[in-house]
Amino acid sequence: MPSERRRRIRVTLRLRLTITYAVLVVLTGFSVLAAVAVVLLLIPGYAFTSSQYPSGVLGTPSIMVSNKRDLLELLAVVAVPVLVLVGGIGAAVGWFVAGRALKPLTDIVRTARTLDGASIDRRIALDGPEDEVRVLADTIDGMLDRLEAAFAVQGRFAANVSHELRTPLTTTKTLLQVASRSEQTPEVEQLLYRLSITNDRTIDITRALLDLAGSNRIDHAENVDLAELARRELADQSETIDDEALVVTEVLRSATVVGHPVLLQLLVRNLVQNAVRHNRRGGDLHVAVGREPGGVVLRVSNSGPRIEEATVPLLTEAFHRTALRTASGAATGGHGLGLALVKSIVETHDARLLLQAGRPDGLVVEVVFPGGGPLENISKSANARETGPLLN
User: Which of 183, 366, 380, 391 is least enclosed, having the fewest CB within 10 Å?
Assistant: First the structure.
């Protein structure tokens, strides 16, 4: 406990400078007094007598000093409070001076903490002499200039990609609309309808992903029911689930969050598809949505290959795949981008992504959105097998 308390004590640079100033002042005063004491010891001794007024009356001394020893004792009595007073004044002056000297650093930190993709055009623009702090501020401003230029290039690239992708998708949509107007067999009509729905969904996803890549923030948000998204995705994956003979356990309680509907649908789709894709035949698939004290929770787990705890943090890195994931992903077209995209969407919505190796195998993924509600313990009801405690 004492060691934890010591770790919590934050000794700032301003405090360290203040202590240094105060110690220097006290040491300087002590050195002067020591020099005076040495001089008093070296000078010849004299006999001290009582003073006599002109009237011949002897004065009454307030302090009796009859030799050098008494004089040194008097010096010590006077010096201690003087040193304390001077040390206090030195500490106060040092605190003020250190604050003034470090104020530019405080401004730099404040500006750096408020910077994000939307305010990358802000600069420190520190005024003052050409000292080390000014050089630091100018260096950071130069770095921000380069970052702003990189963001601008990224934005132009996203705009170009958006144009190149939307043109063929829009053309495909037009062709499907024209084809659907002509007389077709019921099978072809159903096929054209499904192709049109898929094309529209692809257009929405492309637009949402490009907006996310261009600004890394949500420009369009609305109330979205995560349970409905999960229910819809499970229905879309029903054919694959049946082919793999997966045992599905779902606990989907209505839970509304504020976010981008297309990005949230993409998040749910990636989690469910990953749980289906990286599973064994006849394995388990658990999907749960509900409110817990920490917020709205989306939980997806499966009984896929065993994953080492040390590998779990690497799963959200783009293009990272373990040997087991590679073998599975090669047959299903995976590229190791699913959880990396999920992480980006989660961060954009100010949510938390929690990954945990399942017990005895598989992976447990939780997304916790801000905004808690009444306790609905979905952790164990959504998982027939033991998957361990939730991550903190």
Answer: 183
The pLDDT of 5-28, averaged and rounded, is 76
Distance CA 369, CA 295 (A): 5
Please state the rounded mean pLDDT for residues 277-299. 91
* Structure letter (DSSP) for residue 311: G
Instruction: Give domain 222-369's CATH superfamily.
Output: Histidine kinase-like ATPase, C-terminal domain (3.30.565.10)
Tally of CA atoms within 13 A in the half-sphere of 257 that contains its CB: 28
CB-based contacts of 239-248 (< 8 A; 24+ apart in sequence) = 240/276, 241/276, 241/285, 244/276, 244/279, 244/281, 244/282, 244/283, 245/281, 245/282, 246/276, 246/279, 246/282, 246/283, 246/284, 246/285, 247/282, 247/283, 247/284, 247/285, 248/285, 248/286, 248/287
**CA distance linking residue 291 with residue 228, whole number of Å:** 14
Query: pLDDT at residue 77 above 90?
Result: no
Distance of alpha carbon 20 from alpha carbon 38, whole angstroms: 27
Measured between alpha carbons, how far is 271 from 366 in angstroms, rounded to an integer?
10
Cα separation, 364 vs 380, in Å, equals: 12
Count CA within 13 A, CB hemisphere, residue 378.
Answer: 31
> pTM, whole model, 2 decimals?
0.56
